[in-house]
Design a protein that fits this description.
2 domains, D-Maltodextrin-Binding Protein, domain 2, 325 residues, alpha/beta, 21% strand, 12 helices, globular, ten-stranded mixed beta sheet
């Protein structure tokens, strides 16, 4: 059986989860931990799978599982409803959840931060053969703005508005996840798609490696000042380096947003401490599963987030001398 890069990656993480010692059935007092991640074509799922593996191997009596989800919005609703213990989320979605705005209107999420992990880069991907070179060129086009319940959907809507486009009237929206978006672009069913993810994102990488396909990333960095004007410092300038994907031969300025590992506020302090500690003690293992884990550092992890830090995480960062209340 031959697997493409996307399939190999998802299969590899699945094998890790199956082989993890904690996946065997245990006694009735075992604590089960659900980690809400994202789709298999992004970074959250392999990162979350790696985290589940190290927790299972390092914390006796714990059974952690990485769950495939629609990502940020969905993840925080799972935290709110007590159906997930840990979650990956974008900082802008986290701000809405903590304040009870937008998709969380009237129901603030009892969420706390454990670590700021890495930067998400806003991918707006079109075919190299298309005439689309700016966000304004998306007017009148069929565009995937991310799956419903994703942080990508929030960012896509805000970027379109910042560029002077009506997300409902000026484009024909498709709500597809990144893997489905890549397939639809390849098949000519959409003109472009939005994706907010780390580097590299498996689905975009697979698309860029497809024979006969050349991708183009549309710059969004010029929209950062407008986004900051409306939403504050949640958004910042980031750069996708040349050669990040095949066909990207020059650096692309884009909108960046932080990724945060969060926990339900009810999580016991010792467990939150241990999870935070293991992120760093087992960092080489995590980086072996996805390279974005190389960007983890105590100073960065203890940085600014829209949700308060869990007391267990604060204890760890104080021990490392990086906590700045």
């Amino acid at each position: 059986m031959r697997l493409d890069r996307h399939g190999a990656w998802a299969f590899f993480v699945s094998v890790l989860l199956v082989l993890a010692p904690a996946c065997s059935r245990g006694p009735s007092d075992v604590r089960y931990l659900s980690i809400a991640t994202g789709g298999t074509g992004g970074v959250y799922y392999p990162y979350g799978g790696g985290l589940a593996k190290i927790l299972n191997e390092s914390l006796p009596g714990l059974r952690a599982t990485a769950e495939v989800t629609s990502a940020s919005v969905d993840n925080l609703k799972l935290i709110r409803d007590g159906r997930a213990d840990l979650a990956f989320t974008l900082a802008d979605t986290l701000a809405e959840a903590a304040a009870g705005r937008g998709p969380f209107a009237g129901r603030p999420v009892p969420v706390t931060s454990l670590a700021v992990l890495y930067t998400n880069y806003t991918h707006v991907v079109a075919l190299g053969s298309s005439s689309i070179r700016t966000i304004a060129d998306l007017r009148g086009q069929v565009v995937s703005t991310g799956s419903p319940g994703s942080g990508t959907e929030i960012i896509a809507t805000r970027i379109l508005r910042a560029a002077g486009l009506d997300p409902e009237g000026d484009v024909t929206r498709q709500g597809l996840g990144v893997s489905e978006s890549a397939g639809a672009l390849k098949d000519g069913k959409i003109a472009a798609f939005f994706w907010s993810g780390g580097l590299p994102s498996a689905a975009v990488q697979d698309l860029a490696h497809t024979t006969g396909i050349t991708i183009r990333m549309i710059p969004t960095g010029d929209l950062v000042p407008r986004l900051q004007q409306e939403h504050g410092a949640l958004y910042f300038a980031a750069t996708v380096p040349a050669a990040a994907y095949p066909g990207i031969d020059a650096a692309v300025p884009v909108v960046g947003v932080a990724n945060v590992l969060v926990a339900n506020a009810s999580m016991p302090e010792p467990l939150a401490y241990d999870i935070t500690r293991l992120l760093f003690e087992k960092q080489p293992e995590l980086a072996g599963i996805h390279p974005e884990a190389r960007n983890l550092s105590p100073e960065r992890a203890a940085g600014s987030t829209p949700a308060p830090f869990h007391p267990g995480a604060i204890r760890f960062y104080r021990e490392k001398g990086v906590w700045k209340p």
